[in-house]
Automatic annotation (TrEMBL):
SUPFAM superfamilies: beta-lactamase/transpeptidase-like (SSF56601)
UniProt feature coiled coil, ranges: none
The name this protein goes by in its record: CubicO group peptidase, beta-lactamase class C family
Residue ranges constituting the Beta-lactamase-related domain according to the UniProt record: 63-306
Organism, as annotated: Salipiger thiooxidans
Length: 326
């Protein structure tokens, strides 16, 4: 039995040695994380200190994993670099201004008027190509044209409609505007400054790299992106992404009707202060600037992670044991 005297002695020791509390917290987190049978790897960093780096399942910490729709968050960062460099005039620039040749002659009315803001915040107003519509879309001969022909279900800039077709259009527009593929942009503007490898990933029939899905990164590389978001776009003393872009990305522009989370420029935002890239199966890139925390999680990419299921478990992990390490 844990007596009052032993409790007082243990508490005094913990107060005298904060490292003891940190170690206990890390062990609590480790036990909670490894108890989730979908979780492959988890890394947690506070400041410059790695508090946890575990890979109980999967390929490990140093091998690439499919980050699924965390790719949307990476794509949003690339949009920020294109705007900063003047390759895209701004968030209000329309698709017809940025990449008119992408718009098919039979596109849904208003498709050319979609702004970069509409696309990056998933407010294109067109029926989604994710979920049950995903298969038909990726089997089509032209992914961009197919997405822009979808029936209109909301006005441009209306409510959030989760659709990878929308971010693929954005990715193709970025490639067109910059004259560089998304692979080149990702390697030059994130890979090189962060010191991470960005392997080639899926391309559509026209050769555009998939905008918003199928990118592959190691958990360690994902953590560096999380640190980048935590530290206002800076990495190792260098401003990689404009601070203003990161700040604006962490301001809610719309809200997911599925998770209830706010959504900024490509990133989900939790009431507890997390900025989250979220991918199918439970792939997570998360930053908590106020607490100085950065997290990367990879999971089984073949199993779903619904908001009321495994993703909810991951949010409980972030809001509980992880925040407890701050």
């Amino acid at each position: 039995m844990f007596s009052r005297r032993r409790f007082i002695v243990a508490s005094a020791g913990a107060l005298a040695a904060p490292s003891v509390l940190r170690a206990q917290g890390a062990e609590t987190l480790r036990e909670a994380a490894t108890g989730l049978d979908q979780l492959h790897a988890i890394l947690v960093q506070r400041g410059d200190e790695t508090l946890l780096a575990e890979a109980p399942r999967g390929p490990g910490l140093g091998r690439v994993a499919n980050i699924k729709s965390c790719s949307k968050s990476v794509l949003a960062l690339l949009l920020g670099t294109a705007i900063e460099r003047g390759e895209v005039a701004g968030l209000d620039a329309t698709l017809s201004e940025v990449a008119p040749d992408l718009i098919p002659s039979d596109a849904t009315e208003g498709a050319g008027d979609l702004t970069m803001s509409d696309l990056v915040t998933l407010r294109a107003g067109l029926e989604g190509t994710s979920g049950g519509n995903y298969g038909a879309w990726v089997r089509s001969r032209n992914w961009v044209a197919y997405a822009l022909r979808q029936p209109r279900v909301a006005p441009n800039g209306g409510w959030m409609i989760y659709s990878t077709g929308t971010t693929h259009v954005l990715g193709a527009a970025l490639a067109t505007a910059t004259g560089k593929s998304l692979l080149q942009l990702a390697r030059e503007r994130l890979g090189t400054p962060l010191g991470i490898e960005v392997p080639a990933w899926t391309r559509d029939p026209q050769g555009f790299y998939f905008g918003g899905n199928e990118m592959a990164l190691t958990p360690e590389a994902m953590l560096r992106i999380a640190v980048l978001m935590r530290d206002g776009g800076a990495w190792d003393g260098t401003q990689v992404i404009a601070r203003d872009w990161v700040t604006r990305s962490q301001e809610g522009q719309t809200r997911s009707r599925w998770s209830g989370l706010d959504y900024g420029y490509g990133w989900f935002l939790s009431p507890s202060g997390w900025t989250i890239g979220r991918g199918y199966g439970g792939q997570i890139i998360a930053a908590q600037p106020e607490r100085g925390l950065a997290v990367a999680i990879t999971s089984d990419p073949t199993r779903p992670a619904r908001s009321a299921g495994y993703f909810g478990d991951l949010m409980a992990l972030l809001d509980g044991p992880v925040l407890g390490l701050a």
